[in-house]
Write a structure and sequence with these properties.
The chain is α/β, with parallel strands linked by helices. It has four domains: 98 residues, no CATH class; 87 residues, Nucleic acid-binding proteins (OB fold (Dihydrolipoamide Acetyltransferase, E2P), Beta Barrel); 193 residues, Rossmann fold; 157 residues, P-loop containing nucleotide triphosphate hydrolases (Rossmann fold, 3-Layer(aba) Sandwich), CATH 3.40.50. The chain contains 23 helices and 22 strands. A hairpin with a 4-residue loop joins strand 3 and strand 4. Helix 7 packs across helix 22. It is globular. Bound molecules: adenosine-5'-diphosphate (ADP) and magnesium ion. The site of adenosine-5'-diphosphate has 18 residues, from helix 10.
């Protein structure tokens, strides 16, 4: 962490900021006065006027003044202090649940107060709970704010008022040009010259004039906000592009086009590659023949055949004498890949090795040795692949499957882990969660993208119905009929935000009930708490058609591939996100027979849940579903970056501001080309060092 600088930009030069406060400000990633300027308000309060108490309405945030007429402690389930404040136009109750003795002493009859808070309807008229207040002698003493008052994100030990006092000094310095703020976007790149400069924009954002519309500010539509939004989006865009530029300076093994293994592999496949698959394989082959590391994202809807594409790339690496690794987000999917790759590649004389965190010590040591000695040519596993102690001796290509489960941080960390003496391995990232184009332009600006935009021939869309839990009987009958007709069925038990143990229990109970209710139906169970071998046994029995009905938790969400399964029941579907439902449903409809999916819901549906389930009923198109998901849930959830923070923005919002993104992308290209000296300063201004601190 940087320590505060000592020049005129130093925090310590500000009144009220000693070493202690400066240290606390660092927690907000504020290290200098300039950083303070980019600590932007969350929202605003109007303290520019005083409202008559008689005019207040519930729901409003208002500033009022008055005299305490009554002050009383009420004892009930919780002790509280109630003060009745009046200004001659009406009265309001101030309610304090937590209060000190001193507070109680001061808030007594006859005291005059200036208060700010949210008006609510109480039992005996209007009230404010824990308003901000200050003592006044007379109404005329009150100094009204000349601007709307900003509310800043705070941290422990630095209160709103302290922060405001600190901010007002910095803002004054900016105004008087004592603090220099460089314009980092050259005029030539500005499409819209109406937008204010960064300095004007900041002055306005921190102190909007009283006539500024609060709604406009809340929606990010003010023109000053637009200036800042553009800069912030640009900084994020640049930082992602910078990662790519840095990667392109690195060395990677040249994996020349080879044909022996790939031809053998293709001729053994029971199908022809689709045009889309061939095109994407072409993109990859072109990349890995170069001596810079490939960073390619392959997007392809559920069932579009990404695994075969990965296998083709891996074969080319192997024939060039390199090792390859494929990493999956869940143990179950990794196991599936292991089986698949063994079946495909062992006949070609290729060693396929399994590595998971759950392997016993001896087996793990053996796997690690094979990886070390390069005997392992294909290594399949979970993130255990990149844990300490696992050293590949000749890793040429990493495939990361179903990347939507990994955030940007993990992606970067992986890159580092694969680093070895011959440079970085090529990286292929695969996802079934299509990201709308504008969002991908920023979130994946460090990657090249290929899209498998075609499903293998003969696929029939999955017919989807939404059914209340109350009709469970009928659903069970439908399952029975399907099994008797020789079809295979998934029954998915979901309990979100519950422990894996509870999920497993629910699935176990359901399996028992169904197996008691269904005659002659072979029922089996799979969940996350089972041992790896057990899971594998059940999955291969299901694949072999020895099981009719597989009761499962959401462990089967990604990657499971049993083409004969053609009916899926999902319990509590209303609790799942669209992307997850789409993934789950993608387990059926993989063969050439008609498939169906029953979304069962519990109780009555909220509006949001109703529209989500309707989307599932109406379309099988992953892109369409992703667009709807974005509308309903926002980009943090869709990108899986909500927790990782890298895409956390101060003022911009990838969803709300997406129409600005193409302009920003164009600006970024121009900057890299003609004004590279502005790239670092822009990134530093908005993101600081965040991208550099990366851990898995
Ligand atoms: P996903 O893109 O969801 O990972 P998979 O790679 O699991 O899809 O492929 C889904 C199914 O489609 C598998 O059974 C696979 O063998 C099959 N498949 C892949 N490519 C083709 C193709 N070109 N023609 C027919 N079936 C294919
Ligand atoms: Mg897959």
């Amino acid at each position: 962490m940087k320590s505060p600088t000592t020049d005129s930009n130093s925090l310590l030069k500000l009144k009220g900021v000693g070493p202690k406060v400066a240290e606390k400000l660092q927690r907000l990633d504020i290290h200098s006065q300039l950083d303070l300027l980019f600590h932007l308000p969350l929202r605003y309060q109007d303290r520019s006027r005083i409202y008559p108490i008689g005019s207040l309405r519930p729901g409003e945030e208002r500033q009022i003044q008055g005299e305490i007429q009554l002050s009383d402690i009420k004892y009930g389930r919780q002790r509280m202090l109630l003060c009745r404040l009046s200004d001659g136009t009406g009265f309001i109750t101030l309610r304090f649940f937590h209060f000190s003795n001193a507070q109680k002493e001061h808030l007594k009859r006859g005291t005059k107060l200036l208060c700010y808070g949210e008006v609510r309807r109480g039992k005996a008229g209007l009230e404010m709970a824990h308003p901000e207040y200050q003592f006044i002698n007379d109404k005329d003493d009150i100094e009204l704010d000349e601007n709307l008052s900003p509310v800043y994100p705070t941290t422990e030990g630095v209160h709103q008022l302290t922060l405001r006092k600190i901010m007002s000094q910095v803002i004054a310095r900016l105004k008087n040009n004592e603090l220099q703020l460089a314009a980092l976007i050259p005029d030539a790149l500005m499409k819209n010259h109406q937008r204010p400069s960064i300095k004007e924009a900041l002055l306005m954002i921190h102190n909007p004039p009283v006539d500024t519309k609060l709604e406009e500010l809340a929606d990010g539509e003010h023109i000053a906000q637009q200036s800042l939004i553009i800069e912030e989006l640009l900084a994020h865009h640049l930082s992602m592009r910078q990662l790519r530029v840095e990667m392109q300076k690195e060395q990677a093994p040249v994996l020349n086009k080879q044909t022996k293994l790939t031809e053998k592999f293709l001729s053994a496949l029971p199908f022809e590659l689709t045009n889309a698959q061939q095109k994407v394989i072409g993109d990859i082959v072109f990349d890995i023949e170069k001596s810079t590391p490939m960073q390619r994202l392959v997007q392809g809807d559920v069932g579009s055949g990404k695994t075969v594409v990965a296998a083709m790339a891996m074969l080319q690496a192997i024939e060039s004498g390199y090792q390859t690794a494929i990493m999956a987000p869940t143990e179950l999917l990794a196991e599936q890949h292991f089986q698949n790759f063994k079946n495909w590649l062992e006949p070609l004389g290729i060693n396929v090795t399994w590595l998971s965190g759950k392997l016993k010590t001896a087996a793990k040591r053996e796997a690690i040795e094979k990886i070390n000695s390069a005997e392992a040519q294909v290594v399949v596993g979970t993130h255990a692949l990149f844990q300490q102690g696992v050293d590949f001796s000749k890793l040429g290509l990493i495939v990361v499957d179903e990347q939507h489960r990994f955030g940007v941080h993990q992606r970067l960390a992986l890159r580092e882990k694969g680093n070895h003496k011959e440079g970085y391995p090529h990286q292929l990232i695969m996802t079934a969660t299509p990201i709308p184009r504008t969002l991908a332009m920023t979130a994946y600006a460090d990657l090249d993208c290929s899209i498998i935009d075609e499903l293998p021939p003969g696929r029939i869309p999955v017919e989807t119905v939404v059914i209340p839990e109350a009709k469970r009987e009928a659903v069970v009958q439908r399952v029975e009929q399907a099994c008797h007709d020789g079809r295979q069925v998934y029954w998915v038990c979901t309990l979100i935000e519950e422990s894996e143990a509870l999920q497993a229990q629910a699935a176990e109970d359901t399996a028992n009930l169904l197996s008691a209710a269904l005659n002659k139906v072979r029922v089996a169970l799979v969940h996350g708490r089972m041992k790896a071998e057990q899971k594998e046994k059940v999955m291969s029995a299901f694949k072999a058609g020895e099981i009719d009905l597989l009761v499962a938790t959401t462990v089967i969400e990604v990657g499971v591939d049993v083409p004969n399964a053609s009916l899926m029941i999902i319990e509590n579907a209303e609790r799942l996100g669209l992307a997850q439902l789409h993934q789950l449903r993608g387990r059926v409809g993989r063969g050439s027979q008609e498939s169906a999916c029953v979304l069962m819901y519990h109780g009555s549906l909220s509006d949001n849940a109703r529209s989500r389930l309707a989307v599932m009923r109406e379309t099988n198109d992953g892109f369409e579903i992703a667009r709807k998901d974005l509308e309903l849930r926002g980009p943090g959830e869709v990108l899986g970056t909500k927790q990782t923070g890298i895409m956390q923005m101060r003022i911009a919002d990838l969803q709300r501001d997406q129409e600005l993104i193409p302009e920003v992308a164009e600006m970024a290209s121009q900057l890299f080309q003609h004004y590279p000296e502005y790239v670092e300063p822009l990134i530093n201004r908005w993101i600081g060092q965040a991208t550099k601190y990366i851990t898995v």
